[in-house]
Amino acid sequence: MTHLLILGGTTEATALAHAVHAAGITATFSYAGRVARPKRQPLPTRVGGFGGDAGLKSYIAEHGITHVVDATHPFAAQMSTNAVVACKDTPLLALSRPKWAAQDGDQWQHVPDIAAAVQALNGPARKVMLAIGRLHLDAFAPQPQHQYLLRLVDAPSGDVPLPNRHIIVDQGPFTPGNDIALMRAHQIEVIVSKNAGGTGAQAKITAARRLGLPVIMIDRPAIPARAEVGTVSAVMEWLAAHDTDLGV
Ligand code: 3Y8
Ligand code: NAP
């Protein structure tokens, strides 16, 4: 009896959940519990960490999980690493999104990580759109001179360490039109972005392109090797081939 665990939190994970539900495959969707109102899924959903790779391994055993699809965000490196460690004896497949690539005319400055993005903001005050969420805002405290536009999923609970900031509370996916209007309204001069890939976070990259604005593009953290596909249909084929109820 198949029981699929989907590690979610992305647009693609939601699309996969709908395909799995439509195919009648028994599955559980998993969120970390990072935000107040995660998108509702068509599958039974669990929220919260597992307790490291050991916790995930126990969860798999205790819930009769037969397959795991890691459809988390490319920056969720800890979850993805835990999944590789915990799934030594469980079929694991990652549903990942290609990195965004600069197009002609794009003004991207590639940086390896958040700390390098902070360094890249050395210099006189500018109007900066910091579209990397809430978890890493503290890292930018050494650059208080800028006027920041922050986009967060939930209103910040504690203090935000950036004195000159305007906070927008909004949950994507976003649209280029919305992001162009936002950047114009705040006279944005540079955007800081993770190389998330996919479509849900891409609006600001398209907006920057149309407005001719520079982007500080943060490269993805390293993740251990695992089987990966780029589409929901490839995941469905994998499930069919791995003697699930869909297959033989
Ligand atoms: C909790 C709950 C879906 C999933 C939608 C995607 C698209 C919209 C764009 C900007 C960039 C950012 C952020 C972003 C996007 C999708 C996807 C994506 C970026 C939700 C969700 C959860 C999270 C966690 C949240 C992080 C934050 C990152 C905001 C759900 C809405 C900046 C990443 O306040 C916090 O603690 C937020 C934390 C991790 C990164 C950070 O460091 O702050 N996502 N985002 C999931 C959980 O609990 O397991 O899925 O409904 C999901 C989505 N966020 O089904 O439609 O597919 O990427 N999420 C980044 O890419 O830079 C916003 O503002 O332009
Ligand atoms: P992370 O740093 O890789 O994970 C930190 C811990 O959060 C993990 O060790 C695990 O806790 C728990 N966790 C993460 N994802 C989980 C999931 N889907 N289900 C259950 N537990 C999970 O992860 P993150 O970057 O904080 O991302 C958290 C969630 O937000 C993920 O669902 C991710 O897809 C989504 N998201 C993240 C980003 C981003 O920029 N990081 C962007 C969009 C969406 P235990 O060790 O206790 O198991």
Question: How does the SSE layout of this entry go?
Answer:
Layout: E1 4-7, H1 11-22, E2 27-31, E3 45-47, H2 52-62, E4 67-70, H3 77-86, E5 92-95, E6 107-111, H4 114-120, E7 127-130, E8 147-152, E9 165-169, H5 176-185, E10 190-194, H6 203-211, E11 214-218, E12 228-229, H7 232-241
Helix pairs in contact: 1-7, 2-3, 5-6
The structure holds ligand 3Y8 and NADP nicotinamide-adenine-dinucleotide phosphate (NAP).
Q: Explain this structure to me?
A:
- By secondary structure, this protein is an alpha/beta fold.
- The chain folds into 2 domains: about 5-95 and about 220-240, Rossmann fold (3-Layer(aba) Sandwich); about 105-220, NAD(P)-binding Rossmann-like Domain (Rossmann fold, 3-Layer(aba) Sandwich).
- Helix content is about 30%, strand content about 20%.
- It has helices at about 10-20, 50-60, 75-85, 115-120, 175-185, 205-210, 230-240; strands at about 5, 25-30, 45, 65-70, 90-95, 105-110, 125-130, 145-150, 165-170, 190-195, 215-220, 230.
- The strands form 2 sheets. A 6-stranded parallel β-sheet has the order 3-2-1-4-5-12, sandwiched between helices. A 6-stranded parallel β-sheet has the order 6-11-10-7-8-9.
- Helix 2 packs across helix 3 and helix 5 crosses helix 6 (about 205-210).
- The longest helix is centred in the first third of the chain and has 12 residues, at about 10-20.
- The protein is elongated.
- The mean pLDDT is about 95.
- The protein binds ligand 3Y8 and NADP nicotinamide-adenine-dinucleotide phosphate.
- The site of NADP nicotinamide-adenine-dinucleotide phosphate (NAP) has 24 residues, from strand 2, helix 2 and helix 3.
